[in-house]
Amino acid sequence: MARRTIPILRHLLTKPRPGVAAQTRSVTYMPRPGDGAPRAVTLIPGDGIGPLVTNAVEQVMEAMHAPVYFEKYEVTGDMPRVPEEVIESIRKNKVCLKGGLATPMGGGVSSLNMQLRRELDLYASLVNCFNLRGLQTKHDNVDIVVIRENTEGEYSGLEHEVIPGVVESLKFCSERIARYAFEYAYLNNRKKVTAVHKANIMKLADGLFLESCREVATNYPGITYNEVIVDNCCMQVVARPEQFDVMVTPNLYGNLVANTAAGIAGGTGVMPGGNVGADHAIFEQGASAGNVGNQKILDQKTANPVALLLSSAMMLRHLQFPSFSDRLENAVERVILEGKFRTKDLGGHSTTQEVVDAVIAALD
């Protein structure tokens, strides 16, 4: 069976590309493990269905004797902030696997997801939206990587009340997200980077974002660069998704585009992702399914663990354990291809445990 490799998030960069001035590069997202020894990973089960799907990963990791072990912390979205011992664990381990954390609506309560991203400076969110064989969708040949800025802009919660009744939201544009997107495309043999914007209206803020992308693009002559307005982008993703490869976006737009792309590729429940910075990475379901607190799914124990299983495969490759990553990806793909389970977004009602059992049975 042909294997599709979920892309890696980190690379050691030391040599210049042809036609580009030599420059010194260092390890970017985490240090090399070196000796292949088992690695500690911080585990946050999260709220609602989070413990169900993280437990699924734990079972599969144990069954395949993966060289990782988990340091588990109970964190819930209604906490005032992420406990300091959790932050310290992630700083020490460099890597975290996380279930969904519920975000309260309004009331001035900050999102713990955003707190984690700011505390650890996880500036890049990556969601890989692609067709899985055996999963029926309306579009074929979908393979889109959405890379969005993760710590700035409207979606980051950088807002304040200037005077009663007047709320100001702050928006920034960062060159480093453009560099991450192009470097990712280059290292993963991607051919095109598309910048998503609304510079026709937000001429200064999104205009600056485009200036950064254009400047960075000049250093990557082998990668095609183009731009698309966000509303047209959403229409094009639904109509002709095969035209997109890597997409780089400001914060809020990326959240919308990633969920749209995930929807046409098979559903948010099967799309992996991660949030990365200079030193740390958190792996979690790639696109929001809006079902973290779905009581019916929780009661029936039918949460779909595929997205987090594939995210954990990304994590294994990030930790430089590629053979374990390959085994896990192949097992998940085989189970879907052979129709051995059907979760809600795959057209049925298998329980989370039935999915886990099928994946374990499919391990090489």
What keyword list fits this structure?
two-stranded antiparallel ribbon; alpha/beta; globular; 11 helices; 10-stranded mixed sheet
How would you explain this protein's 3D organization?
Helices cover 35% and strands 18% of the residues. It is an alpha/beta fold. α4 (175-187) packs parallel to α5 (205-217) and α10 packs across α11 (352-362). The longest helix is centred in the C-terminal third of the chain and has 16 residues, at 322-337.
Order of helices and strands: EHEHEHEEEEHEHEHEHEEHHHH
Main β sheet profile: 10 strands, mixed
Give the overall average pLDDT: 84
Taking pLDDT < 50 over at least 5 consecutive residues as the criterion, the unreliable ranges are: 10-33
Relative strand content? 15-25%
Helix/strand-derived category reads alpha/beta
Total count of helical runs of at least 4 residues = 11
What is the terminal separation in angstroms?
12 Å
What is the total tally of β strands? 12
Shape call: globular
Helix content: 25-40%
**Strands in their spatial order, largest beta sheet:** 2-1-3-12-11-4-5-10-8-9
**Rg over CA atoms:** 20 Å
Oligomeric assembly: single chain
